[in-house]
Amino acid sequence: MNRGPEEVRCLLMRGGTSKGAYFLAADLPADPAARDDLLLRIMGSPDERQIDGLGGAHPLTSKVAVISPSTDPDADVDYLFLQVAVDRAEVTDRQNCGNILAGVGPFAVERGLVTPGGERTSVRVRMVNSGDLATATFPTPGGRVDYTGDAEISGVPGTAAPVVIEFPPGSGPLLPTGNVRDEIDGVWVTCVDNGMPTVLITASDLKVTGYEAPRDLEEDLALAERLRSIRLAAGHRMGLGDVSDTTVPKLTLLAPPRHGGAVTTRTFIPVRCHTSIGVLGAASVAAGLRIEGGVGAATARLTPDDDRDDRVRVEHPTGFLDVVSSVGTDADGRPSARRTAVVRTARKIFDGTVFARSAETAPPPAPSPGGHR
């Protein structure tokens, strides 16, 4: 006898330059395997079009946020990010997502997890994937989230209310390998983690300009193989182990800026070339550019004004992302992040009930790479 489709309360939101389904943890199965199976059916995976679910047929639009009250005294809510593969029955929790993070605070207010605090509300978020903290501040006039405003971010049409996200310094080292530069596969790189494990590479060292369209870079099979080799080796050196089945570390190619920013970037996630850049990835790039002797130091064009206000404009294929980033040294004289903040926007698209594809007609999910943390 066939069961009817599961009904789950869901809020679909655009967060930054991504789009995802936001859920209360209490509305999903507590068992990770059962939860992942349900999310695959909700998003319509595996299917390159995700025609039978909410997914948008691209990694940037096949994302999930799971939110719950936090037991951490330094946070109001816990945020678990899950990347749902498009063409594979796979759900992974091995990374954070700073774009989807932009919608977590508004969602917490929408669901009553946080009481609005006047004209503006700040929500302290613990990112479960890594244990890192962030604080998102956004307008709540009259006790309701206001998504309208004049903030504009590249990669998103129109304007919306600003969501200011502050990241305190993480507990881990800014340079996970302990080195300002590492030579991997005959190329000098800087491995940095300021919220997202990222490998910075000068584009010209890989015989590309760094200004190519993402599709052209994706179709360069020789480049793809080189990047794969570098990523696997960097993963081990950064303490991430075997990263062959994960999406971290990210690889970011650097080139001199063309539009008044500090640097031009092309980021791989891990084989698809990002049409913009992730928030946490940009935070790691910005910090990496400020590390003396790093591979980005010779490529970046940081002006005195940038140094005065700690602003780093990171150019990407569809525009730019501004990061407030300052780097100092720790007690042992090693580079460490002092301040990191970005401005994002978010918008509620719909709030209602999503009906999952029935389990009887869905292919079984593959085991999540690296398991659940």
Automatic annotation (TrEMBL):
Spans through the membrane: none
Family affiliation: Belongs to the PrpF family.
Keyword list, A-Z: Isomerase
PANTHER family registered for this protein in UniProt: ACONITATE ISOMERASE-RELATED, ISOMERASE YBHH-RELATED
Enzyme Commission designation: 5.3.2.8
Descriptive protein name: 4-oxalomesaconate tautomerase
Superkingdom assignment: Bacteria
Pfam family, one: PrpF
Keyword Nucleus: no
A single GO molecular function term of this UniProt record: isomerase activity
